[in-house]
Amino acid sequence: MRGMQVPAPFEYERATSVEQAIDLLERLGGSARLVAGGHSLLPMMKLRLVNVDYLIDINDLHADLGYVQVEPTRVRIGAMTRHRELLDSPELRRHFPIFHDAERVIADPLVRNRGTIGGSLCQADPSEDLSAVCATLDASCVIRGRGGDRVVTMDQFYRGPYETAVGPAEMLVEVRVPVRPNGSSAFEKVGRRAGDWAVVSCGASVWIEGGLISDARVGLAAVGPNTTGIPEIAAALRGRPPSEEAYTEAGAIAAGACTPVTDQRGSEEYKRHLAAELTRRALRRAVDRAVSGPADGREP
Ligand SMILES: Cc1cc2nc3c(=O)[nH]c(=O)nc-3n(C[C@H](O)[C@H](O)[C@H](O)COP(=O)(O)OP(=O)(O)OC[C@H]3O[C@@H](n4cnc5c(N)ncnc54)[C@H](O)[C@@H]3O)c2cc1C
Hints:
There is one protein chain. The chain is α+β, with helices and mostly antiparallel strands. The protein folds into three domains: 7-58, Uridine Diphospho-n-acetylenolpyruvylglucosamine Reductase, domain 2; 65-177, Uridine Diphospho-n-acetylenolpyruvylglucosamine Reductase, domain 3 (2-Layer Sandwich); 184-291, CO dehydrogenase flavoprotein, C-terminal domain (Enolase-like, domain 1), CATH 3.30.390. 37% of the residues lie in helices and 25% in strands. The strands form four sheets. A five-stranded antiparallel beta sheet has the order 4-5-10-6-7, sandwiched between helices. Strands 1-3-2 form a three-stranded parallel beta sheet, with helices on one face. The chain has a three-stranded antiparallel beta sheet with strand order 11-12-13. It starts with 10 loop residues before the first strand and ends in an 8-residue tail after the last helix.
């Protein structure tokens, strides 16, 4: 009975600094887990899909790791930044409207109030939307351990479903997104109902110089690993004027590059169709924004 689900017993500690969290992970070993928003981990514990002996609560680290900091060449986002803060950040929306597009359709307000970007990326659920956003933006992840920080690309970060480059005594502390001029971005998602996980979702970013596409990246979620921005799309679009024909061609490349499987959310064929269609729509919207300048609060 769902109402009776209770997790196995576990010990609980609240970390008050990143260093202390890493120390605890190191000392407590394999069955210790960090908990951020808890919206992925706690349901899995209730279902006993994961067994945790020690839960290390990192919510007090929001003071240090909850931020969106804009610098001239990059935007730094702390791992404890909550979905809601990503949704509400005007700076983030101005530089990367894709975040606002995506956050509007991730879960519901309750989940968004607690869930974090760090927890989302570390959960590495194949249907998770922010990984697609980060792949689209060519973001990198800063992982901290006792020995210091290391920085990895999204491709290096995502090792497979529910598996990342974060080691047992390490923490994701920051996501870094490069700021490049003359570009914009957009996100499109199809779910079975509002607030649900994606059947397919798709991010696109484009850069326009002298009226021509100078670069493009596409990130997909729920259709297999997709962390490189699909370089074949950039190769096909570079040097061309934006057009419906170009978006359709990119869509066909995206549909061919992904590896969806038939499940309760839809057939493989339907998901490939969505990958093509959402790529077209996201590129079109990103180009419109790139041409019309930074988002000004309207909903293009
Ligand atoms: C009803 C519902 C609907 C949802 N719908 C969507 C959706 O449409 N799209 C979507 O993308 N997501 C969706 N989610 C997931 C949601 O976005 C979660 O908040 C997110 O996946 C996990 O973030 P969290 O902070 O809650 O992580 P937690 O559950 O606290 O942690 C998840 C995992 O990451 C690890 N972890 C957390 N932070 C760190 C860190 N800084 N360093 C290293 N490891 C860390 C934890 O140990 C754990 O293994 C949904 C969730 C629910 C409950």
